[in-house]
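Pipeline run #58 for the internal structure catalog. This entry was flagged by the ingest filter as a single-chain record with no existing model, so it goes straight to prediction. Upstream metadata was stripped on purpose; only the residue string is passed forward. Reviewer on rotation: M.T. Logging verbosity set to normal.
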Amino acid sequence: MDRRLLTSQLERHEGLRLKPYLDTVGKLTVGFGRNLDDVGISRGEAELMLKNDIDKVELQLNEVDEYRSLDSIRQTVIANMCFNLGFNGLMHFKRMWKAIGKQKYAAAAREMLDSKWANQVGARAVELSEIMRTGETADG
């Protein structure tokens, strides 16, 4: 098989769609015709997507002074929230950011828990707020 020729044909015939869509038979599809309903993605593909998403989150957060002032453990908490909420959603936590700016981590943790997000994600918010409060993870 001529992989280069096949790739060129498939790119032309399938087209590139960067957001999921329903194909002509109603299958959720993305990319160059990847049938997500029947084929899905591999673990390697999921890991690559996660790496790329983490890179994007880190790039966005490095523009925020309060984030850069945090130790790496608390930065991880904020990055986790950013991954879940999106950058714009995370930036709406005005009182949390203000507390972080003053190094009042217990107050920042309370602000995290006093949110619609905390109600939506439950145990995740409890775990992350405790790490924000203490600066320590269960792993030590």
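catalog note: The longest helix spans residues 43-61.
catalog note: Strands lie at 17-22, 28-31, 34-35.
status: ready for reviewer M.T.
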